[in-house]
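Re: that chain you flagged

S.,

Sorry for the slow reply, it's been a week of failed gels. I finally had a moment to sit down with the sequence you sent. For the record, here it is as I used it:
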Amino acid sequence: MNSSKHTELANHAWSVADLLRGDYKQSDYGKVILPFTVLRRLECVLEPTREKVAEIAEQYKDSDIDPDRFLRRASGHAFYNRSTLTLRKIAADPQNAAKNLTVYIGAFSDNARGVLDRFEFAQQIKRLDSAGLLYQVIGKFTDLDLRPEVVPNHNMGYIFEELIRRFSEQSNETAGEHFTPREVIQLMVRLLVAPDGDALQLPGAVRTVLDPACGTGGMLSAMDDLITDLNPDATVEVYGQELNPESWAICRSDLMIKGQNPENIAFGNSFSDDGHARRTFDYMLANPPFGVEWKKVKDEVEREHRTLGDAGRFGAGLPRINDGSLLFLQHMISKMKPVDVDGGGGSRIAIVFNGSPLFTGGAGSGESEIRRWILENDWLEGIVALPDQLFYNTGISTYFWILTNRKSPDHKGKVVLLDARDQWQKMRKSLGDKRKELGKEHIATIVKLYGEALAVAEDPEHPLHGKVKVFRNEDFGYQRITVERPLKLRFEITEETLAALEASKAIQKLPQAAVLADAFKSLLGAKWATKQEAWLALKDAVVQAGGTWPTGAPFNKALREVVGVRDPEGEVQRVKGEPEPDAELRDYENVPLGENVEEYLAREVHPHVPDAWIDLSKTKIGYEIPFTRHFYVYEPPRPLAEIDTELKALEAKIQELLGEVTK
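Prediction finished late last night. Pasting the structure tokens below so you have them in one place:
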């Protein structure tokens, strides 16, 4: 089925909007169209066995035996409908349309009915019936041919995604929160599965797949298709979790139709209500929403981080509240299968991120600690930079992170960075922010390049050598050192000093504050090079004024703040014999991990500030992945002569045009 057929069927379903106009707001059209499309799809799938199921349901109507397994067997699917009603019959009886449709939906198996309940379908039936539209809407959908032989499961996914995209546009939601472009998914699953091609073709292969932000299930379907293409006898069990009820319902219905267990798709927030706790998986992939805050589940996440630590999912650290991307990654890592002593087991993970998780957060921050945890455990296999304008909801650049706890021997201790930002073709028609797409040849090029990354990186003659770089894990680490310089002061009494004295709370609360003020005024204009000289002179002035010299650290600190003035040539202030650092001159430097910080200080800092030193107690270890910096290629500016020639040519052209105007 080609894309025009998908669009034609989606247009047919969306044409119901013409009936809804006036009684429904545009933003509510999808609340009718999406559940009716799901209902019509379920009906078309069950059509061949409908009468047989109805017969068995009639046989067991008054029996104490639960006929569920007999009805499933008769339907040939994991769901069924016991009624003899159809949408066409219901539409033919307008007066009883609401009652019959309610009976029809109630006759579905619990799993199918649960899907429709997530759409709040009963509420829409009442609303349509009150507006006199129900039988007309049903009639529209009876003409929609969604039989599997006409619309295969894979193609049905495109139709659902097109309807969701339109619904999102009408309601100002973000389509990208619900699904990912199919060609992006194809690249993602191929990168994820590529190293396991041989193992997947073994007889009796069984693989489990998880998407903790599964949307309509596009990624799960693609993984299922790819693995079964490699090995038709393989068993693929897919699992997911989704927060959006409409997307959850569509994903669940898709799995039912394909014969997968719909109970594997959990509803709810993956962070606060893990639907697959204590389970592990062979493959995990996700496209979590970019830059979405996790404030709603803050208490649950922080509690797990605090109480369970490394025994929980979020022991490595917590990112800033406005972006939960790295929480998803930690959640997935917690579900990796352990690697056995023979090297078997283990998992592979692929996740879509924007640029933020690469570098956001300095040394010691939650983000940096999460990157550190991943890299020091040697889980990050590679990062692939994708073209911008590839997703429906954002035009920014995106990245695939590929992780595994069973790296091949030649990949151990290494990370591949692959720049695929130029692998794209322009779309004939934009969809939201999506103006570019990956062609089949682009996907093939990227997958091949990723598989050969180590060899390409070592071969300067390879045409794509500049697109691949390989680093050691520790190359992304750095030491955040604190460079201190001594506090240098001179001491003086000026009008500003006297004003500061009157504003100092620590001094003004002293019983003899007035005496101090008078004493200091007598020294107006005085200057001292050292603190000792200044304190002796000030103390003598206070005594001569009839006062006593206050004692205590708070007074001395306040007095120094009043009469001390920073001066590069001033006296170095000391605490217990050691130079006191000047907070205003404090600086920070990032030193590559493994480099001696004292040697760095001597080479990079001392030539400019010889009296600087490192406060080793404040040194922190950080990790960041400056992807774009590693692939930056300097382009020298054009020669001035070339620019000058071009300007003169333009001036001549302008003069020529002006001459034509004045003729």
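What I noticed first: DSSP finds 29 helices and 21 strands in the chain.

Talk soon,
D.
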